[in-house]
Specification:
The protein is α+β, with helices and mostly antiparallel strands. The protein has helices at residues 15-37, 87-98, 112-126, 132-136, 159-168, 220-223, 359-366; strands at residues 46-47, 52-53, 68-73, 79-83, 104-107, 138-144, 149-154, 175-179, 195-197, 200-202, 204-210, 213-219, 229-231, 238-248, 251-258, 276-279, 287-292, 296-311, 314-322, 334-336, 344-351, 355-358, 368-370. Helices cover 21% and strands 36% of the residues. Strand 3 and strand 4 (79-83) form a beta hairpin.
Length: 371
Amino acid sequence: MDSNFFEKEITCLTEDILKKCEKQTNANESYASLLYSYGLGELTKYDDINEAFVGKTELTSEDYPDYYGGAYINNDGELTIYITEEVETCKDKIEAATGKKNCIMKRCRYSYKDMLKVKEEIEKHGFDSQNEPIFKNITAYGVSDMENFVFVEMDDLTPEQITLFKEKVSDSELIIFRYGEKAESEVTIRAGEGVCCVAGSSSNGFRARIAGVAGFIMSGHGAGGKDVEISRGSDSSPLGKTTHWQWGGSVDAAFVEVNSNVVLSNEIMNTTDKHAPFIAPSAVNTMVFQSGITTGLTSGIISAVNINVQVGNIPMTGLVRATYASAAGDSGGIVYTLRNGQRPILGNHVASGPHFGQVSNIIRTFGVSLF
């Protein structure tokens, strides 16, 4: 979009928040190194010729060592790593994996491998049609890195529903049950704001290319499908059409191939800043920012990095939960963080809660590269 698309000024980048982000930089660099040591491909390395990541885009339970129990950033901006063994027995392994000697290590009860196995088992049961009534009541589930357990959130948190889940799905001691409101896809019918189509209005995410063709990422449920004409409003000329689309699984996004007269910018709406053409693994407690057409620029922290969420009636996997404010119309908007003075992309806003989809999943699914 040209610069007229970005109208508002910064509303939440206070000096305290900027200092907090700066302190978290080293912690997230260590966190990324830790995940790379377990087999995650560096998400900046995309093979345009073969249209694929170099390495794994996500880790499974089998990739994690038995001693690792999860990680998060504490209130002092330091990476805290849970381990299931004595600290001294893991110290050298952790320091070698992170390249740092200042990470905090704490004993925990459950390994990340075991917690992910429980999550994967729950997900497997969700594909069984006999369990449909149970999963209609589940609003989200996943691993809590900070609390070292698996959580299952229910709209109807009664002893009967918990017992039914334990009988039909899993009675693992790693699971904690708690109340959770159902997430809703945040799109509204509103002309003249953000990007629009027959499905309604949503927010522009970030620019990208597919096979060298330029376009931008927006909300999948906001677009409504493939070959859909997208504009800024009902009374404006088209920007382009969606050529790739998915709403479900780990992706709620559409790629809009833009017309030749459209200029794509990496400016972030509601700020005077630009996003960086790369993505960055970020741990729980990392400061994040969401820019959307309804709430403007809002900030919060990551509270869970890989959870499954029921968005309306659509089951979605591998979403990230954060605490920034959002509202209808913000769907598809960019979610990013601050690191070394740059703003790497983390994903696009998906639903209330709030939740965002990881950009690595969009890249893998559509074969896009960032610029």
